[in-house]
Each structure stands twice: as C-alpha cells, then as structure tokens.
Specification:
This protein has 167 residues and is mostly helical. It has one domain (9-29, 63-166). It contains five helices and three strands. The chain has helices spanning 3-6, 9-32, 66-88, 93-116, 144-166, and strands at 38-42, 45-52, 119-125. The protein has a three-stranded antiparallel β-sheet. The longest helix is centred in the N-terminal third of the chain and has 24 residues, at 9-32. The protein is globular and about 45 Å long. The chain starts with a helix and ends with a helix. 29% of the residues are buried.
C-alpha cells in the first residue's frame, strides 16, 4: 500500500465506525419503535421514530420522491470528494478528523436513503423557548449521522480559524 494511502486508513476507520454506530442506533429504533412513537427521557429530550425524506430540517421532504435520488447523489459526491481530500491532507489532524466525521455521517444517511427511501431520525430535543421557531418547541428530530456531520462542520470552521491565525 502506498504511504499516502496508508495514512488515511485511520480516518476511513473512524468514518466506518460512525456509520456502524449510526446504523446500530437506527436498527434499535426500527426494531423497537413504530413510526411516530415517542418516549420521554427527560423534560427536554425524547426518543422518537421519524422518517425524513428530505434533508436538514425536512427540506424538500414533500417534493414527491425525486429528492431521494438528489440527496443520495449529493451524499455520494461528497463522500468521493472527502476521500480525495483525506488522501491529499491525511497529516492535518483536525482537518482530517472533521472530514472523517462528515464522511461517516454522509454515508450513514446515504445508506438510509438507498435502503429505506428516507432517513431514520430519533433524537428529539424540545425547549419552550423554541416554540416561536418550531412547533411545540421541538427542534427537528435528527440522528447520530447528523451529529457527526454537524460536529465535522464545526471542526472545519475551527480548523480554518486556526489556519488563518497562523497565517
């Protein structure tokens, strides 16, 4: 294996672990909850079963079906681009960590779209102060893949800020 290729193995392993953990949690939800079920865990958090045929915040969820393939294509294209970026920058640890998180999350949700035709979401946070923005104060449900993508995006911003400061 070429040296540069072996340097991305840990980053790809992290992405694969995220996919595995994401799908383990989704399997648990699909095995134990019916669509629409909700279990209160705390005063601000429920475990639910929601199917999202759109993207973030159910964007284009009611678009008639074409969005499944559109978001799948975006996810696959992003995954290919991220692997290429990891091959180009495997030694930049924070950058590669961010990309690995995004890669794992993207693949997790692409698999859902291919297998189910929608993404399985199950984390439901709600606070009264959000009532003006979201029905009943419930932030849109999400999953571990979404968490990984969001954390990866935050780390990309932090990495860029650090890079700019070093100048």
């Amino acid at each position: 294996m070429p040296r540069h290729a072996s340097r991305i193995v840990p980053w790809l392993a992290l992405a694969l672990a995220i996919v595995g953990l994401d799908h383990l949690t989704k399997w648990l939800i699909l095995s134990n909850f019916q669509l629409g079920d909700s279990v209160e865990v705390t005063a601000f958090f429920n475990v639910v079963r929601v199917h999202n045929s759109g993207a973030a915040f159910s964007f284009l969820a009611g678009a008639g079906g074409w969005q499944r393939w559109f978001f799948t294509a975006i996810g696959v294209a992003a995954a290919v681009f991220i692997v290429w970026m990891l091959r180009s920058h495997p030694g930049q640890k924070l950058f590669a960590l961010a990309l690995s998180l995004i890669l794992g999350g993207a693949i997790g949700n692409v698999i859902d779209r291919l297998v189910h035709g929608h993404v399985v979401d199950w984390l439901d946070f709600h606070w009264a102060f959000l009532a003006g923005l979201f029905p009943g104060g419930h932030f849109p449900a999400f999953n571990l893949a979404d968490c990984a993508i969001s954390l990866g995006a935050v780390l990309l911003v932090i990495d860029e800020i650090r890079r700019m400061r070093r100048g």
